[in-house]
Amino acid sequence: MYHDIMDLYGDKGNMLVLSKRCKDRGIPFELDTCGIGEEKDLSSYDLLFFGGGADKEQLSLIPDLLSRKENIAKAIDEKTFVLLICGGYQMFGKYYVAADGSKIECLGFYDYRTETGAEGSRCIGNIVIDAQLDDLHTKMVGFENHGGQTVGVDHPLGKVLYGCGNSFDAGWEGFYDGKVLGTYLHGPLLPKNPKIADFVITKALQKKDPGFQMSDLQPLDDTLENSAREALFKRFEIEGDK
Ligand code: GLN
Predict the structure, then answer these.
(1) Which of 156, 159, 184, 208 is most buried as measured by Cβ atoms within 10 A of its Cβ?
(2) Which pathway or pathways does this protein act in (predicted)?
(3) Which atom of ligand 1 is nearest to the CA of 86?
(4) In testing the pocket of ligand 1, which one of 55, 61, 84 has its CB within 8 Å of the most ligand atoms?
(5) DSSP state of 155
């Protein structure tokens, strides 16, 4: 969604990862885009992805996004999985306060809301979290850069091991309720977190095949991905995944 304006730190790269990991396994993958004003039935997709952006971009897409509220609710209801990064994550909550203090009403699917950092302060840097997604327990690595301070998250995605997370000193990062995964982790997220990529593929496939399990996915060679992770774990003196 809004691929042309919501693509901070190469968030669209997440879709390249999904495409490659599906194609390597012979799983058909089709990528479509939905920009401002484009007519699309979002409930007809297996996965919706919405990346991060600057305040200006977030503001510019709000009328279009709000006009799709009912359609997005239908998509979630009909098991379209939703992956949200940073700005996209913020916009599924009640409101977002931009750096200039203006308050933007958002979709309001969840009670969380995003205030702005005091005196323009931002959470910037590498981040590692200990995440729980259904039966999958794994560490996620990424990069965060947000002024927004997200509070009132009732289902956080994981515990912060290094970095900030939902807000300065939040201790917790992101949102996950089985249907929607929201996170501040750019990087892009999926190249450095292959298990999360496979988790997202599994959730997307479950729309049409509810019995599909992550263990049904053919294993791929993740040697390079895992050494990138190990390098970061080592740098931050965090024990890697077993
Ligand atoms: N503009 C938002 C913020 O600063 C989101 C930034 C982002 O997507 N990285 O909080």
Answers:
(1) 184
(2) Cell wall biogenesis; peptidoglycan biosynthesis
(3) 8
(4) 55
(5) S
Helix (H) or strand (E) holding 63: helix 55-67
Q: Could you tell me which residues are beta bridge partners of residue 150?
A: 114
Number of neighbours of residue 134 by Cβ within 10 angstroms: 11
Determine how β-strand 81-85 pairs with β-strand 172-173. unpaired
Active site residue 137: no
Residue 218 is predicted with a pLDDT of 98
Which residue's CA is minimally distant from atom 5 of ligand 1? 87
Q: Report the C-alpha gap between 135 and 133 in whole angstroms.
A: 6
- Residue 122 annotated in ligand binding: yes
pLDDT tens digits for 69-89? 999 999 999 999 999 999 999
Pick the closest to residue 142 from 219, 85, 72, 65 (CA basis). Answer: 85
Q: Quick one: 8-235 is in which CATH superfamily?
A: Class I glutamine amidotransferase (GATase) domain (3.40.50.880)
For residue 69, what is the enclosing H or E element?
A: helix 69-77
Q: Looking at 86, 106, 123, 164, which residue is catalytic?
A: 86
Mean pLDDT of the chain: 96
95 DSSP β-pair partners? 105
Average pLDDT over residues 232-238: 95
